[in-house]
Amino acid sequence: MLVYLIAFVTGLALLVGGSDRFVAGAAGLARIFGVSPMVVGLTVVAIGTSAPELLVSAMAAGAGNPGIAIGNVVGSNITNVTLVVGASAVAVPLVVASQTLRREFPLLFAVSALAWLLAADATLSRLDAGVLLLAMVGVLWFIVHTARQAHGADPLRQDLDARHGVAMAPGAAVARTVIGLSVLLVGSRLVVFGAAEAARALGVSELLIGLTVVAIGTSLPELAASLASALRGEPDIAVGNVLGSNMFNLLPVLGIAGLVQPFRLDPEVLTRDIPIMAVLTVVLFFMCVGRRGPGRVTRGEGGVLLAMFAGYQGVLYAAYGA
Known about the structure:
This protein has about 325 residues and is mainly α. The protein has a single domain (about 1-320), classed as NCX, central ion-binding region (A middle domain of Talin 1), CATH 1.20.1420. The protein is about 80% helix and about 5% strand. It contains 13 helices and 4 strands. The strands form 2 sheets. It has a two-stranded antiparallel sheet with strand order 1-4. A two-stranded antiparallel sheet has the order 2-3. α3 (about 50-60) packs across α8 and α3 runs parallel beside α11 (about 235-260). The protein is globular.
């Protein structure tokens, strides 16, 4: 058991470190090829922060551990809404004024409904995976197109231009990308190995492990990024990071896992976890989008989200008798 724990913790540490380097390198390469700072922030960086979830779920599916693959996706989305936004709001109340965010919420609802519909037969086939990946292309186009329509007036666009407008030397960008991706691959393999073997040794469900420790671990880059953005006074980035990450988890992360190896879903995912994910997304929507003027996630609401996170973990462990 100690070996499995060491492998899991080491893998998580590599995922966090590798994600930072991969994001920096990939963003630098995109800027070298003339991609605008706004597009870099909305696409390259968002995809990069979801790299831990993508690699872990893909490797879990390929290794015959579907519970870890789907648990990581749904559990990470729940963790992002409750723990990541909750902790960020407790640190600094989040005022969300960006029109881009208001447009992204309905998009996230649509993506969630699509993933739920495709998984309704309790099977994720390669056809389902292909639909999810095609939807990802549409989502990227929509996000970039609508952000460009802001003509520089949107706070989110201004923040992205400021953060990703500095170019990186080609050699440094390539080195960071390659090193980051290599570290991510090693880290994800260790996480899947440690989590799957620990589940067997403890006699607990792989789905439980995926929904809890794996999901929390792979959400650490989002937690770090959102907290840092909140402390820098960039609430649109803090919340936008969560929205983008959740969409990427449901589309390319789940889609690539299904392409690697089609798998069946545990019934509990459809009747408990995905509905909880959907309800929490609606709760966050009403917190972020004000009826009159900017929406605001207060410290009190952040505390409520953290309590929901703790409550969900308690429900899981009670359900599985852990």
